């Protein structure tokens, strides 16, 4: 039995298979409409996350399965002091597969050790959020046609943003990938990412402070939010916040085929005027997020649909 | 693509078709049991409303579809500052139709502008609650056999009650309808309703303070709650509250074929001793609420079931 | 129409039929996979209980039915002052069967009087929790092969534990059952249970303070939690708490075929080192809880599945 704890749990070849499957689901949804009939997904969300929960639920429903679970810890046995390992042993009696979100790093890993059903880590604190990374990879591969030979801009909070770290881990496995790291000094990519991941794998990167300076050379731009409270002082925040807001004017500097991705929800780091730009891919990302989760559920359950 | 924002979004003829469909669903539920197979309803409830949420969910399940969503804003991305227009663009990837309840007037209308799926306004603040009005119309038409030639008593809080305002808007489109407005002075129907709707359309009405005075001439009585906090002073409330409580004694004054409706939940404005009276229609209303929502979902999704 | 309010609502013969059905469901799940197609279960949880709610939902989904409801009172009409009897009349329009949990003793009974659908009491305050008792009985019958001729140890809080009281009520109906009551003086089984139930039915029992003293003679041990706040003073708690923690060392004193049950969630009254002991039946109990609820739903809905 396999789980999904980190995007690196799958080899590049296995990821290719999952993405091929996701693209086939996109092209032939009806073929998969009954693939999980009689199967149940448990969504155990110890902290709320509408988007992540609903995308898993939509995926399971698209496959003809059903869903049960909870959307916050208040309504769970956790409030009675039950351990995650006991909860998962109970849930193993109620469902065939489980998506777990937990504020505590490593909780889904603990669950794996006691589970008799596959577990999908749907986010554990600031640690991992592997289905977001699968979504990002599928979006890039589907819309750019490749995951190698890319110049990738990562913009915003590169220090704390777990989606950015996960995406770097996932992309350095492909050939000829270059990163442009766009952030204020305070929110630079941490040295353990720069040295232990990028340098070690000889992946070229540069760091810039202003989005304008990076845009002209990018194949894709991955935007994230810059939270005010991350800054050391108000002055710095006011001085710099506009550097990291993507608008029409900045989009004019970017190549015609540059994609804009964002894990969502956004607050104001992408102006809504960009939404109608054909390069804006962040809502399509939400759609790819459903397809890739369908492919993941089928893979973890070992269900094959005849061609 | 169509949405339901206000009961006036549909012409009288279109409403008739929806109600015909609802009556056919009532008579032949099995015929529709798989009509929405593979379709998903998203229930986005930014404020809790069990009755409205569950009636939509029951409707979709009766049609063989499935349901996902959230039942309060706490467990939604709204708490992360996401806009309604971003949420609906995401939800458009997850579901085929959406029922939205929002404390802010106009929020579902904003959602429409960005949605690629039909949206049902399931209540926006004190503004609209169109599926309640469809429910009321279907109940009256099914149980009285007509929507014209009626003397309609509206009782209780006519000032703030949005269901009452919506119902008036909907009923003035039918021939020979008369209203008896039963309320304390403080809670009279507002002048913008009396002058701009009733007078303008030459719909006769009278205003009375005591329910007893109105009952003998009514074809139907629509009860609503009179909340203590709406009164200017305690004294007025104590003096008048019993005027607006329907009990067995008052029912004795009413015609044998007068219907009693109530949007529910009731608190004490209808005594439970009235529940067993054959004229009490408020629980049947709940049942009609499911049928009309089934018809609405089919209509908005453009699904036709062969005869 | 029948409801389930107390485990004694069914005769011993009727319980046997339900348990036979549950065992057939266990053996032939596919036979029942569409038995409730088109049927809806409403889960009305006025207080949260993940385990109980999800086990009912899993049961209904296993039967091919669907589920709607609420998981806490906050998101229900109860917060608008609606009575339980009004709520159930509404829910009767939305669903075919209902599982209700309520903090107030007797609430599900009130609901029964106004319901046109079967109601399962899923726990009402400290009063009853009949589906837990059915689960316990099925677990014992399935794993021991009988419900008579048993020496049963009940350990922990025997004063307030409603599952223990319910189980005693249910087991005294079988032949040659003996109880060993294992608890601190403060948490003894109340006299109304000892005198009015055990003595009256001439069921032999003894009371001991230490788990070790009871273990060697037991056919099954039913563990419950001892909550610190139940003790009169800290000193007593510290002195005695270890008496009621089951660990490997204590398990060595027990017969090879003694079963350990626990209604779950546990906190620390069973050491996790016992989990791998073949006599530990508490997680299997969770599985039997699903089967017995499937059998119950079929029975209350009057659905028979051909052999």
UniProtKB/TrEMBL annotation, chains A, B, C:
It catalyses: carbamoyl phosphate + L-aspartate = N-carbamoyl-L-aspartate + phosphate + H(+). InterPro entries: Asp/Orn_carbamoyltranf_P-bd (IPR006132), Asp/Orn_carbamoylTrfase (IPR006130), Asp/Orn_carbamoylTrfase_sf (IPR036901), Asp_carbamoyltransf (IPR002082), Asp_carbamoyltransf_Asp/Orn-bd (IPR006131). Residues 2-141 form the Aspartate/ornithine carbamoyltransferase carbamoyl-P binding domain. Its EC number is 2.1.3.2. Pfam families: OTCace (PF00185), OTCace_N (PF02729). It comes from the Bacteria. It is an enzyme of class 2 (transferase). Pathway: Pyrimidine metabolism; UMP biosynthesis via de novo pathway; (S)-dihydroorotate from bicarbonate: step 2/3. SUPFAM superfamilies: Aspartate/ornithine carbamoyltransferase. L-aspartate binds at residues 80, 162, 225. GO terms for molecular function: amino acid binding; aspartate carbamoyltransferase activity. Residues 149-299 form the Aspartate/ornithine carbamoyltransferase Asp/Orn-binding domain. Keywords: Pyrimidine biosynthesis, Transferase. Carbamoyl phosphate binds at residues 51-52, 101, 129, 132, 264-265. One of its GO terms (biological process) is amino acid metabolic process. Heterododecamer (2C3:3R2) of six catalytic PyrB chains organized as two trimers (C3), and six regulatory PyrI chains organized as three dimers (R2). Belongs to the aspartate/ornithine carbamoyltransferase superfamily. ATCase family. Catalyzes the condensation of carbamoyl phosphate and aspartate to form carbamoyl aspartate and inorganic phosphate, the committed step in the de novo pyrimidine nucleotide biosynthesis pathway. This is Aspartate carbamoyltransferase. It comes from Mediterraneibacter butyricigenes. The gene is pyrB.
